[in-house]
Amino acid sequence: MSGHYPCGGLNRRHLLLGAAAVVPMLSALHVSAQEKTLERGKLGIPGPYPGRVVEVRNPAMIKDGVKNREAIQASVARGMKELTGADDATEGWRTFFEPGDVVGIKVVPNGFPAAPTSAELILEVIEGLKAAGVKTNDMFVYDRYRSEFMDAGLHKILPDGIKWGGLTPENESTQLVVDFPSFRKDPIAGYDPDEFVHMNLVHNGHDPKDERTRRSHLGLLVTKRINKLVLLPVLKDHGSAGVTGALKNMSHGSVNNVARSHSTPGSNACNQFIPEVVSHPILRQKCVLHIMDGIRGIFQGGPFGKKPEWSWEHNGMLFATDPVALDHVEWTLIDAQRAAKNLPPVAASGRSGLNPLGTEGFDIRQPQHIALAGNLGLGVFDFKSPKGRRHTIDHRVVQIG
Questions:
Q1: What are the per-10-residue average pLDDT scores of the chain (401 residues)?
Q2: Is the separation of the CB atoms in 56 and 314 below 8 Å?
Q3: How many beta carbons lie within 10 A of that of residue 283, not counting itself?
Q4: Domain spans of the chain?
Q5: Number of C-beta neighbours around residue 156 at 10 A
Q6: What number of other Cβ atoms are within 10 A of residue 98's Cβ?
Q7: Using an 8 Å Cβ cutoff, are 102 and 132 in contact?
């Protein structure tokens, strides 16, 4: 199969995926040259624990802005045990990883210094992978942008042997470039010309006659160089998507041409874009574990969190294989904090909605992308299923410390 729609041959399954998933105007197509060779095992999303979200609360993880590595270590260990039912944390890590695995660690550097993925969590994940038998030179810590990764200083905290960088390694304003000649030897840089999601959604100002504007290509790191991903989103709201969690970390963190999903205040399409990208079979197979950094949360002004008064010390860490369930829990946590601050829910916020702060950038926020992802079978959305549904979200809160 050619990876360049519409010129290449397309099978009926691909056409049905695009037609059934979203409205016709934004119909999407997952083009995967590897799809026939991928086998859906127990790992991948929604994974072996659909609907299960374990939240570990530990008041010692952060206090007055100072993080405690030992408390974070204890919280990660407990979360891995509770999620998997293992006797110890090492056994929990071995549920997902084994010797010979090549693992990508997707972090969130934006929001630095208020709320990026904590360095302490990244280091604990590396230690957990090592305990499972993964070699340090088979680990890749990355984000979409190398510049944001370095601005947060995450490269400075990594042990020797860990590879790091960005899928987009240099300044590139269009988000359409796939190949970066100066970085061809970089093991993280670049996008796969044969693996992409095609949507009839074009960034404001791009030439709709340019077929590149309709494609979001997966990073070469994701398609060619690793076989598993562990993703470390952060507990944050988002001006266009409502919240930014596990699903958006997958959709906007591992492909190019993502700004088309919210290129103007009035053309927000995160509800369609996020589930469609996450539905790509390679992402579905390789994303095996999500650990949400909820040590500090952002309830307004995310994802960058520039105002300290819009953040809070949640002292939580959330563990799941199901990104839909995880993000629905995140949504409730953020809305609860917003209610405590006399702010409307994220789904009611936007320039066209309730806006007491006068700070919204988009007409309507779209946290409903989480429910739509659940409808596509990417996870469990319901806290209490209606009659006839088998699965609900099991949000277990474990207090330690």
A1: 31 33 54 59 91 98 96 98 98 98 97 93 98 98 97 97 97 94 96 96 93 96 98 96 97 96 90 97 97 97 91 98 98 97 88 68 87 96 76 94 83
A2: no
A3: 25
A4: 38-399
A5: 9
A6: 12
A7: no
State the pLDDT at residue 42: 87
Residue 392: Cβ within 10 Å count: 15
Task: Say if CB 140 and CB 163 are below 8 A apart.
Answer: yes
Name which of 17, 389, 396, 12 is nearest 197 in CA terms: 17
Q: Are 310 and 300 in contact (CB under 8 A)?
A: yes
How many whole angstroms separate alpha carbon 111 and alpha carbon 310? 12
Residues 171 and 199 sit within 8 Å (Cβ to Cβ): no
Structure tokens at 386: 């209606």
214 and 196 Cβ atoms separated by less than 8 Å: no
Backbone angles phi, psi at 77, to 5 degrees: -60, -45
User: What angle, rounded to 10 degrees, do the helices at 119-131 and 69-84 form?
Assistant: 50
Say what the pLDDT of residue 366 is. 94
Q: What is the 3 state secondary structure string of the chain? A: CCCCCCCCCCCHHHHHHHHHHCCHHHCEEEEECCHHHCCCCCCCCCCCCCCEEEEEECCCCEECCEECHHHHHHHHHHHHHHHHCCCCHHHHHHCCCCCCCCEEEECCCCCCCCCCCCHHHHHHHHHHHHHCCCCHHHEEEEEEEHHHHHHCCHHHCCCCCCEEEEEECCCCCCCCCCCCHHHCCCCCCCEEEEEEEEECCCCCCCCCCCHHHHEEEEEHHHHHHCCEEEECCEEEEECCCEEECHHHHHHCCCECCCHHHECCCCCECHHHHHHHHHCCHHHHHHEEEEEEEEEEEECCCCCCCCCHHHEECCCEEEEECCHHHHHHHHHHHHHHHHHHCCCCCHHHECCCCECCCCCCCCCCCCCCHHHHHHHCCCCCCCCCCCCCCCCCCEEEEEECC
Q: Is-contact 240 366, C-beta < 8 A?
A: yes
**Pair of tokens at residue 363:** 């007409």
